[in-house]
Amino acid sequence: MDDLLLVVWTLIKVLMVTVPLILTVAFFTLAERRVIGAMQSRVGPNFIGGPMGLAQPFADVFKMLFKELVLPTNANRFLYFLAPVLTLAPAFAAWAVVPFDDGELIGALSNIDAGLLYLLAMTSMGVYGVLLAGWASNSKYAFLGAMRSAAQIVSYEIAMGFALVGVLVGTGSLNLTKVVLAQGGNAGFFEWFWLPLLPLCVIYFISGVAETNRAPFDVAEGESEIVAGFHVEYSGAAFALFFLAEYANMILIALLTVLMFFGGWLSPFQGWVGGVIGEPGAHWLLIKTVFFMFCFLWFRATFPRYRYDQIMRLGWKVFIPITMVWIVVAALLFHFGLATRGA
Amino acid sequence: MLGEYLSIVIFLGVASVIGCVLLTLGTVLGPKKPDAEKLSPYECGFEAFEDARMKFDVRYYLVAILFILFDLEIAFLFPWATVLDSLSTAGLVSFIGFIGLLEIVFLYVWKKGALEWE
Prior knowledge:
The structure holds two protein chains of two kinds.
Chain A: H1 2-39, H2 56-65, H3 77-93, H4 115-137, H5 140-171, H6 176-181, H7 198-211, H8 223-226, H9 236-261, H10 275-278, H11 282-302, H12 308-335
Chain B: H1 2-29, H2 36-39, H3 58-82, H4 89-111
């Protein structure tokens, strides 16, 4: 009986993370269109659901659901439908270890010691969905797009992995709650890891943009050459799943950047001012994450798309050497006490 | 402790169920009016003239191999970075040696032209 209760309670907690996540994704798509619209002096969707267009994402969901699911000739049925699920499941499951505060109010769903390792595993899973989708569709565009995306994702994953090692050097723990707590201190935001690990921080976020196949690294969706890339043959609900996974991953990358380099739920003014402003809390995490989510949209509206060989050059010849050197620098900094960690 | 991992398993389950439910809903709610044109793979308006499972550039294979190598190095660095505190300077020095070796390998790969895309 106790076991059953535990499972039900865990299920409720999982849904308490999943449902807000799906809603965030929904309104993030709206925000993207509104923000980029504003940046390009357009209005964006403003008709459905009042002047803000707030009902637009729901209209989109229903439209997607009522569209035909087309299975192309010679496509592998099982793999074709497995791919979107395989893309979505890790993008969502990664949220299981994300801590929202130090555990006094919300904490993490599962506060495991191997948190960072689990995240690395989950974010790496996404590439299987991409490859399977491209292969199973039996379309040349999808196939070429999948090859490109997969090569791009694995290339940037190395830089991301090295950046994670840098964070580990700073914290000495794979537990995400401890990663954030290690950035506490009385010097406000100067205690956070962005300062000693600045190159890693920049590289982590940019690699995250490349990892999620977002502009300016969205060659997979280079409309002018290979149309929509690996998911060109997907329609309706199956396409919606890829869309959902992509946005969930964007939010995840923004959140992880905040947790690992920008002090998570810690206040930027900790130790300087008292009261509500100096206190840590989930609201700080929210504010910082929203800023990095905004950066994704900002990049898309600002930068022209990179050429594929430029993307590979940036990943292999710039990011990987810099990260490899900087973990040594970080190790020296922390070993000789030039950079310190909090409680 | 088991409870912590249980929630991960349940989360994975819920995520997969969401995916499957959406796909099923799409199948049930969407129309089904297939025709040969609609089902043929997209190819800029003309008929597909060969199978898409074709030969591809060997460089993708090279990228995959290099990825495995370097990802493995990262896996080696994880335990080291976790216990850096309790290691003396000797631990740090051997790490720098390890990274130095990795840099030499990396330079070799670079000079061999494995990182070139033209």
